[in-house]
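Shipment paperwork, digital attachment
Item: protein structure file
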Amino acid sequence: MIKDRKFEWGLILLNQPYNCKNSSHVCSNFHDTIEFIGRRWMGVIIYTLMSGPKRYYEIVASIPGISDRLLTERLNELVKEGLVTKNFLESSVKKVEYELTPSGLALQEVIIAVRDWIGLREALQNKIEND
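Attachment content:
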């Protein structure tokens, strides 16, 4: 649980840096945010939803190894924090679709930067091993 306070996602949307009162220590909001995004499967779920709205079974198919229980738990957390919306589709059968909110979409640059860093790190590691 995220210490009963909402993140300041609006600052991300405005592309303004978050200023901590004491810059010599790790800001608690920064720490809480990194811990939240870094939770098991959280970043992968956000990455999966970056390509557009998905139904539950589409998310499961995109993430091999995730359990139904954990996926449901993480999606509920993302909905609660306002990063994902749960849309109920009109039909005779109950259908639900998950989609990133504007706050969730604002994380795209962060997720892409992590993905790119992984590629860079692997390339550097391969270069070191081959030299």
